Amino acid sequence: MGNLMKPDLQKTRLDMVYHLQERMRSGYERYLDEQKLEWEGGLLKTYLVEADIVDKTSDSHNQILKYLQTQAESFNYSPEELDEENFFALVAGSRLGRQVKFDIYYVDASDYRFWVVYTVGHSSRTDKFMDKLVTNSTKLDNAWFPMQFLSKLVEKGFFNGLGGRFNNDPFTKEEDDQLKISLKLWGNLAKDVFDAFQNSERLRRMFSLSSVRLKRYFKGSDESITDDVNFFGKVTSMGQSFDSHLDLVNKFYKDEYKHKIVQIIERELAIGVDDKSDVAILKGEPMFVRFGNIIPNIELFIRSLFSGTAPFRLWGLQQIIKSDFARIYAVDLHLGRTLTFEVFPDTIRIFLPLGTCGNTIARFFTLFQHHYDSSAELLGGKYDHIF
Amino acid sequence: MTTSSKNVLILRALIALCKRDIKLPSDLYDLGYTQVVMDKTIRLEDDRSVMPDLIISSRKENHCVVWESKSGRSIDNDQAKRLASIKARAFPDQLMLNVKIEDGFAFDIAYACDGKECQNIRWDLDRVAQELASVGAFPLVGFYDESGIKTHSGRFNKENINRVLGDGINIDLREVPTEYLRFDKDSPRSEIAPYVMTNIVAYATRQEPRFSAEQIAKDSYGSSWDYIASNTTKNQVAQKIDNILLDARQNELDGYLTKPGRGGIRSPKWNLSYLNRRGTAFPSRRLKKLQKQCIEFVNRLKNEEAGIYARQLRFPFFLEEE
What ipTM is given for this predicted complex? Predict the structure, then answer.
């Protein structure tokens, strides 16, 4: 980024909150005045990132800083250590004509596995930056919110908009067989539209929520805050209260999502011998993705799913045991970890080895809903609905 | 199928029935047999010890079953006698199982056998019973490829499991998951190779392309590696994996897998070429080619093993012994 002048950074979390609060307020006023979805330096974007960097808790700050420093050149940002533990800023410059525009990303890694990254940069730049940073790393992943998780989220406020998408491209090359939909809508009839889609046999399986818009009113006031929660862990806030936004993010991300990933998937369901005991007690349970869209040809299906390409990025060695059952020894190319899948016509049985990141399951399940059957359910152990 | 594969399959099936699996019968899980202990040496009262293949336990039934898996046609007499010496207190005290000894607790030592060999195993147990009567009371459960699992002879000390296994559990053994027990030291190479191949691709993805046979053995075997009691067994597994890598390098994975280093199974001498100069991600075309070659490699191993097994069947003197 050369010697260009960098923007001032907020050195503590509290300073960052005041700063972002101010930006939110001015941004919201412009939003009300101009009714433009977004403009330069507008709304607060919060990216929820799952990180697998720290192996020594007491040294988490240094390990995260070192990681951010090693990635800086590849992704063209400058990592800054701020005044508090596990709190950093990434300053990324992009050229806009003859000018260089700097975006600041505040990385709050107070939970060293579940980071929250804040920025007020324009989403045309920030989405690209975050996507590159996460997609090309085996240590970082987005938070992935399946259909059920997003639809339950709207119970925390008023359902005031939704985004949806579906395309079966990864599973079919024939244009005539390709099914696609992509839409975004706002307004207080969002729930009616969603219910209508859910009541349609076809759309229930071929329409996955990609975002929900949630409007919440402050107690004793007619002021409100609106948040768009996206399926890949991005939250855009339209409103004036950072606290309220933070409260929402903490509840559904650091409490609910983290609980599902860490407590349920990694601690209860991952398969392996508990290393805390001197007796080899085999722990864990298989997980199942159950769906109604029956797989007509398992061999073709797994060839598409485990080819190593996007969106699933799963690579595997398949064993076709019989016409209605196959086993795949797979590698999650995003994280570089192995896991085993077993495919039946109506179910995929998954074994996550102990020590492997549970986010792999959330990512697979969410993408499966977006590309094969949006009504699919994830269950395992005592949980009929993990999400 | 080799005897070792069958042995592993029997144990996998028993473990699978103790899990909540919507694709398998849930009879044992429903009876509360959800605690599974593997590779644990039990100290006996006379200072000897015994390591059964598997122990399952139900708090609901207040019952444990110690399983000895047999795919061959004979038993180890000394092992049978040692198993007969296990006392009830070992379950809560040594195995940390959640049972109440004072409240109607019972346990069984049971043999789990290849369905075709049940009668031979029964005769062996009855022979040992002439020296130690309790061995004759061990229940014997047969595992049949076509029809599933059923008690062949003997009774369990708790009626519910007695009924369930007496009636038989209808299970297609081909659908039993491999993940609970991936392989053992005697498993054929074709059953180990998929784990080896996926692990080396995982290492390369994480930009850790240099590895030792021991490291890959540990990662392929799974989290119970540290509980394998003997270093000899660990070395045998690692050596077998080193041989798999050598074979792959000389054949299907020539050009991908290289061996720049020297040394034994602990030396990080193996390397998977990145296939990408930047070393960040595999280009998808090369990945597909690698996938094809790994599958060809595993299939060749399978065909070679099938040939060996068929030759053994033609010459019964060379039948595999356990």
Answer: 0.90
